[in-house]
Amino acid sequence: MMPIRDNGCYCFTLETIDTVDIFTKPMYKQLIVHSLNHFIDSKGLIVYGWCLMSNKLYLICQSLENVPLEELRSRFLMFTCEKIVEVIKEEHTVRNAWLLKHFQHPASLFDESIAQSCWGEVKTTAQIDIQQPQSMAEQLEFIHSIPVKERVVQYPSDYIYSSARDYAGMPGLVKITRPATVEGELYEIESRKNGFRVNYNQRSQL
Does any domain span residue 55? Predict the structure, then answer.
């Protein structure tokens, strides 16, 4: 498992338990949006990129220097799980009853009490050197392209539940931080994909 430095920048993949599709309705997607903004505004989370699919949340983030990132990630998982369970309990359906039962597991090997968790595996997929904008740009390009690969949308910026719109100059849902150097690298990547190259600093002159 990759060690996490408190103020380092990392790319995480947060999977739902058994990769169950939870984020299929707008209310559950907005819950993640509001939670990310809450942790950005009040908890010291810095988000550079994100993408929410039906059973995974991809995050490129770090924390303020005085906030342990691993602890912040754990608090985010607990916070969102509590909110998701609350919303599921409000809507009485057969599937929601199944989800609540599926979330249950023993609190510990030696404890008869039951805990609930909608999150399963959490993967630390990459550590990113923020002094190397190409590294972050490549990770952003990867997570932004996921909805396209899944054939949800035709272009990354068409998908509103990711930071692709922010980096395309459109208003996004989450208050991300956009390093200018990374935006330039993203533009270069997109230019190469489209078979032409235009210097990032010269775009306004076209």
Answer: yes
